Every structure is written in C-alpha cells, then in structure tokens.
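ABC transporter substrate-binding protein
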Amino acid sequence: MQLKKWLVATALAGVPFAQAQSAEELRIGVVTSMTGVYAVGGQQLQAGINAYMKVHGDEVAGKKIKVIYRDTTGPNPEVAKRAAQELITADKVNVLAGFDFTPGALAVAPLATQAKVPMVVMNAATSIITARSPYIVRTSFTTAQTSYPMGEWAAKQGLKNVYISVADFAPGHEAAKWFKKAFTEAGGNIVGEVALPITSFDYGPFMQRIKDQKPDAVFSFLPVGEPVILYYKSWAEKGLSDAGIKLISPEGWVDPDVLRAAGNASVGAISGGFYTPSNQTPQNQAFLKAYKEVAGDKTLPNYLAVGAYDGMAVIYEALKKTGGDVDGTRLVDAMKGLELPSPRGTIAIDPDTRDVINTVYVRKVEMVDGQPVAIDFDKFDAVKDMGKE
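Tokens:
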C-alpha cells in the first residue's frame, strides 16, 4: 500500500519512475536515409553502428547505450531538421549522429548548437559542415581530403593533361576544385571539364567527347552506387582504357558492391580514399567479422559503415574520458584530439577543426580470383581537411 502511494505521488509530481532509470542511459539519435533510393547508405551506417556494438558491447562508463533512428529518405534538409528536433525534444537524445548527406547536416547544425548536443557526422563530406557548429565532430572524410591528394598523385606520375568530369552538384564541384588546385599547382594542365547531370545516367555522349580530347587521364566524381556502376560500364564500352586513358577518382568508387556490379569494366580504375576493405590489419578483420554477423552476406561493408563504426568509437571513448558525464560540451571537448585504432588504420580528431585526420590510400582495381578488388599501392599520411584553408 505504501509503495502504491509513493508511485502515485511521484507521478503527480512529474517524476515518472521510468525517467529515473533513463539517467543511466546515453541516447544516440541517428538521422539518415533508411528507405527510398538512398536507403543503402543508411543501411551501411546502421550496420557499422551495430558492428561496433557487437565488438564493444552496449554499455560504457556505466551508461547503457540506446540508439534511436529517424528516416530522412534521402538528401531532404527539412525532413532531417524535423527528425533531429524530435530526437532532441521528445526522445531526449544526448548525441546526434549519422548524416549521410550534407544538406541534412547543415540544416541540423543550428539545432545542435542551440541544444548543446554533440553531432557526430558519419558521412556527409562537404568541408564547411564542422564550421557550422562547435558541437559537430566528423568521423568520415571530406571531399577535399581525398580529391587534393589525387591531384598531387596524378602530377607525380608524370600525367600532363587531365579531363574533369563530375556530377553537377556541390560535392562534385568541390571535388573538381581541389583536384584541379593540386594538379595545376604541380604543373598539370586541365584540357576540359564537364558537369554531369545527377538525374540522368546516359554517359555515352560525354565519354566520346572526353575520348576525342585524348587526355592522359580523367578525374571523375559521382554519387556512389548506380551512377558509378553505369559510368564504369560506359567507360569500357567507349574504349577509354583501350585508348590508354587512366580513370582517377576520390572516395567511393571502389566499394565492393560497386565493383561486383561493374565487373571487368572497373579493372584498372584508380581511387583515393580512407578505407580499403581488402586491408589485412587486425582491426579491419575484426570489423569485417562483426559486420558479417550483424548484416549477413547480402551486402559488403564500405566507407560509410567504417565512418559509423569509428563514430561510435569516438562517442564511447569520449564517454570514458568524461567518466560517464553526458554533458554535451564536456563530450565534445573529450572528442577533440582523440587518436584511435580503426578498420581504416589510425585516425585522429583535429582539436582545432573537429574534423577527422585520415591516411588517404591510393588503390587500383585488379582481378583477384575472378573478382575485381581494390588493392592499396600508395598512400598519403595524416591528411587534414584542406577545404578550410
């Protein structure tokens, strides 16, 4: 009888019994595409999160980790903003995470600042994102970070004339800008440029135009997935490799599922990025094992999954450093300067910009046991985001 009276009294006082238990939780609200044509990106992020929790458990520094997902269905900034607002106000999350697209990340940034909630960007790659809120930390990469080194690499190989073909949207133009800057500063020449439509994937006419220019190489950037697969196939059909033209790209072009779908058409392609699934480090082998256990064999992990896996590592390590304190400002301060082992190698969070510092690997697609596989053969160590310079 006394217990019943106490429960009624606390409820009337606005202190639900369940809320007392929630003090032992750290809630992570993930904003990403879970349905629609871009669902594969959200599925990779979710699998990366689940893989990390499979390896490291769901409790850290005395806090039970609870992950709550909200679907944006794609690059929809207003939907992302509403989802984040709901996570902050209704679900009382301690950390926002995910963000597969830049527009969504930019839309949510002011909310993170206002609520003083850390926002861990696990994919969106436009350089300006971390400058939009002091509560944003990025664990993926930036477009500049993988495009600029490829411009340097192309020049070092003695390539003189490069044609640029990128998708006609902000990330594509940013990729072109930073490749061009590095390549031309090293003495290279840009012989032509084309902005490819993002709503049509008929690349044949563009390929012929490029081939007629007879460049040494082409630098390309497209949204990952079907556009890249079709680009590879059009490249092969028009005989650009047979004409001695090299294909160079930044992150995303050597994902296992993309290569599997493109087949022989992808062989010989060169790409710069932060994660190569074929690397044999113990950290990557543990990640691959956990990914398979949580996601099965239908998809293979790519860089989005690793960005999410490392995002969880940053959250866990920050919580350890604060001794379980979930105060947003303290968590972000604890994330700054972290150095962690990762499936990609060692990563660090730049204490000044809160952006990830990556090794950028140069990979070439080769046939291994009848399957196209990206193999590392060169690298650039400790690459910061030069997009803010």
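The first strand starts at residue 25 and ends at 32.
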